[in-house]
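Researcher: Re-running this chain for the archive, since the previous output was lost when a drive failed. Same request as before.
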Amino acid sequence: MKVLVTGGAGYIGSVMSRMLIDSGHEVLVLDDLSEGHRQAAAGLGLTVLDLKDRDRVVETCRRFKPEGCMHFASKSLVGISMEQPLEYFENNLIGGLNLMRGLVESGCGWMVFSSSAATFGIPASVPITEEFPASPINPYGKSKVMIEQVLGELDRKGDLRFVSLRYFNAAGADPVHDLGEDHDPETHLIPNVIAAALGNARAVSVFGTDYPTADGTCVRDYIHVVDLARAHLLALEHLSSGRPSMAFNLGNGFGFSVREVIEVVKAVSGREFEVAEAPRRPGDPPSLVASSERIRAELGWEPAYKELRDIVQTAWDWHSRHPNGY
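Model: Regenerated structure tokens:
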């Protein structure tokens, strides 16, 4: 199958692109390299392109004629989305609309959309199921909801079927293809804690210690990047077999607090480092744990990395080999 992967030089997209190729698919990667890395897409068909450039997006889709698309490209930092809402909506919505225009006009049949548990805002309880209402509390989450709504309209019209995968904290590294997490700035917890353990950061900051959780710090569900990619591959197979559009929540079903993650990194690395307390970041819900019962039942997905320690171990191994990233 010919598959278009947007954001395919990024963290999750690069792992996905390799998995697609390993599975026998033909891949074209689109990435503006604002956050992705050429090294992560080495050997792949890479077109450097900004999705906000509608004419180039449509022309590229018409030329490649994808049968399916995996859409990862977006701005995704919750805190910055609170500070720069216009930039986030412009990038995520206009880019997403241009992509959908290109897919429809080139005859592409389906899209797997990288959504987020941020669409649920502050849930009444956890784990979050697909029946929970969408009530995002930050522009990032709102942009994901809006794209899902547009996809719903395209599905209703018969133009494009889709699977939306709502997950929260991708983590770990791909040990087979030596692909890991390298953002600038880095805002994700595990790589920041590892940076402190490696001595590349003076300390790791804990943003908020007064949340209504067991130890006062945010609780998140961490899912291995390879398990995420496998879920996207199963979603593509679901759509290519003619099955209907669906949304799935995706997580291990277990939440870990910031302090718990720090302790696991200390155990894996065997190192001590400074931990500094800082104020809450705007837009951070206290607890997000995503149920994956529906995708397990419908698509047969099961995570290979079920333990936080195993997830952190792959990240530690990669960052130890690449202390300065790519």
